[in-house]
Amino acid sequence: MRILGRVPLVGEIEVGGAKNLALPAIAASILTDEKVMLSNVPNLTDISSLLDLMTHLGSDVNFDSEKHLLELSTKAIKSTIAPYDFVRKMRASILVLGPLVTRFRKASVSLPGGCSIGARGVDIHISALRHLGADISIENGYINASAPNGLIGCDITFPITTVTGTENVLMAAVLGKGTTRLINAAMEPEIVALCELLNEMGAEISGVGTPIIIVEGVDSLHGTKFEIMPDRIETGTYAIAAAATDGKLLLKNCKCEHLSSFFEILSLTGVSYEKTAEGVLVYNRNKKIHPVDIQTAPYPGFPTDLQAQYTVLMSMCNGTASISENIFENRFMHIPELSRMGANISIHGKTAVVTGVSKLKGAQVMATDLRASVSLVIAGLIAEGETIINRLYHIDRGYENIEAKLNGCGASLERFSV
Ligand code: EPZ
Question: Pick the catalytic residue: 115, 195, 254, 256?
Answer without folding.
Answer: 115
